[in-house]
TrEMBL record:
The lineage of its organism: Eukaryota, Viridiplantae, Streptophyta, Embryophyta, Tracheophyta. CDD domains: RNase_H_like (cd06222). It holds the Pfam family RVT_3. It comes from Sesamum angustifolium. This is RNase H type-1 domain-containing protein. InterPro entries: RNase_H-like (IPR053151), RNase_H-like_dom_plant (IPR044730), RNaseH-like_sf (IPR012337), RNaseH_domain (IPR002156), RNaseH_sf (IPR036397).
Length: 251
């Protein structure tokens, strides 16, 4: 029942009203059953319906329910007297890569996984405040997970930045998982723990700040990572200090 209610709307989510109501029905069916067994109260379906409605009104009064949870069913909400303020759409914003502050460098990284687990690759690109590319890299990682690819992309990029003196550094990733792992020091498998500890050490050496960026602003790294995963490429492309042609090297 829960499954069919949840997927009866294209707007399904864990907290959508069509996901919540089946659980309420099951719960109040159980409480009605207990009332019949232990207090001799007659069992009625109307009693279950009234309990569900009362609970929904309590949640609405507590401002726990939002219009998002009623998406696709706002008419039914209005029938119950639930009125939600319509939020005016915000002004559109352009999502693009932004240059770091003068004298700083920016590392954009990404990991790609063809399955989870599957063939994975890690990649990144380092640019200065004028947008000039100083270094780009791709690493084939064989078979692994998306988390391993994302963390490896950050670690490899920071290591290369340290080797080539590209500091101080801002690091941008589009995987919120990486931000959470670094913020809460959330260790899992030993491979993940090892990478997190290396990244934390490199953050101190490079005065680096790791932050989230929208995927649309991380296009170059995303393309390199997908190529690294699908073709299993490993290469580093870097420019010398005089802006001559880029040179390839294998780590």
């Amino acid at each position: 029942m829960v499954h069919f209610w949840r997927y009866s709307t294209p707007f399904h989510s864990d907290l959508h009203i069509r996901t919540l109501i089946p659980f309420m029905i099951l719960w109040f069916t159980w409480t009605q059953r207990n009332a019949v067994k232990y207090r001799g109260v007659p069992f009625t379906t109307d009693g279950i319906i009234l309990e569900v409605q009362h609970h929904l009104r309590t949640l609405y009064a507590a401002r726990t329910l939002t219009s998002t949870q009623w998406k696709g069913d706002l008419y039914q909400a209005a029938v119950m007297g639930f009125i939600f303020r319509q939020q005016a759409p915000g002004a559109p914003s352009i999502v693009r890569w932004r240059a770091p502050s003068p004298s700083w460098f920016k590392l954009n990284t990404d990991g790609s996984s063809l399955g989870n687990p599957g063939l994975v690759g890690a990649a990144g690109i380092i640019r200065d405040s004028a947008g000039h590319v100083h270094l780009a890299y791709q690493f084939a990682l064989g078979t692994g997970t998306s988390v391993l690819a994302e963390l490896t992309a950050v670690w490899r990029g920071m290591e290369l930045a340290l080797t080539h003196g590209l500091a101080p550094l801002v690091v941008e990733v589009d995987a919120t998982t990486v931000i959470s792992l670094l913020k809460f020091r959330a260790f899992g498998k030993w491979e993940v723990q090892h990478l997190i500890m290396r990244i934390i050490c490199l953050q101190q050496l490079l005065m680096a700040n790791v932050q989230h960026v929208f995927r649309e602003a991380n296009g170059a790294a995303d393309h390199l990572a997908k190529e690294a995963a699908s073709l299993q490429l490993t290469r580093v492309l870097h420019h010398d200090d005089h802006g001559s042609s880029p040179r390839h090297s294998l780590p």
